[in-house]
Write a structure and sequence with these properties.
Shape: elongated
Number of strands: 13
CATH superfamily of the largest domain: Nucleoside Triphosphate Pyrophosphohydrolase
Radius of gyration: 20 Å
Structural class: mainly beta
Order of helices and strands: EEEEEEEEEHEEEHE
Number of domains: 2
Helix content: 10-25%
CATH architecture of the largest domain: Alpha-Beta Complex
Largest sheet: 8 strands, mixed
CATH class of the largest domain: Alpha Beta
């Protein structure tokens, strides 16, 4: 499938059918859909192509030591934003649940042993076509084995967080909610649109 990202419309322009390779055109489907979709021009195919947001799943790995709360961050070894800090997260894969994907990403990026907990933030990021879901995750060990996407991992207390060197706004928002809830002693689910 050939496609081009259109910066003016925040959509991916599909030029050819991924099913048969024929040209695709944008028009309303015949099924009553109200959005223009890329539709194969071949009479024998006619595939309607839907492009939907991607789910990014991750965790807030944390540990309490000497009465102080710490979170584990990863220093990115890949673009985008190589050399910046982030919570361990990545794209959800087919065949896994959101929490399974978050646990897998945490293992791949941080090599951390965790106990998965509840969903903590749901952040819609429409300008990049993504929804970010972060789970709280209790660290079970302070032995880490980061993968190739990570330069290093490190524990940070709230007053040590590298706010100016964070890779993604979704990590910043999630960490702010996490430490605010920790001070109150109650962790709630936070849903937000980042526009």
């Amino acid at each position: 499938m050939t496609f081009v990202t259109s910066l003016n419309t925040n959509r991916i322009d599909i030029r050819f059918c991924r099913a048969c390779g024929s040209p695709a055109v944008y028009r309303l489907p015949d099924d009553g859909d109200t959005k223009k979709r890329a539709i194969c021009t071949s009479a024998s195919c006619g595939t309607v192509h839907y492009v939907n947001p991607l789910n990014v799943v991750g965790t807030i790995p944390y540990v309490e030591k000497n009465g102080k709360l710490y979170v584990l961050l990863c220093l990115r070894n890949i673009e985008p934003r190589k050399g910046k800090w982030t919570l361990p997260a990545g794209f959800m894969e087919l065949g896994e649940t959101a929490s399974q994907g978050a646990a897998r990403e945490t293992h791949e990026e941080a090599g951390a042993q965790i106990e998965m907990q509840e969903l903590f933030t749901v952040l819609s990021v429409p300008f990049v076509g993504q929804v970010h879901l972060f789970y709280r995750a209790k660290l079970l060990s302070e032995v880490y084995d980061p993968g190739h996407e990570t330069i290093e991992v490190r524990l940070f207390a709230e007053d040590e967080l590298p706010w100016d060197d964070m890779a993604f706004r979704t990590s910043k928002v999630t960490l702010k909610h996490f430490f605010e809830d920790a001070k109150r002693g109650v962790f709630n689910l936070h849903e937000r649109d980042l526009v």
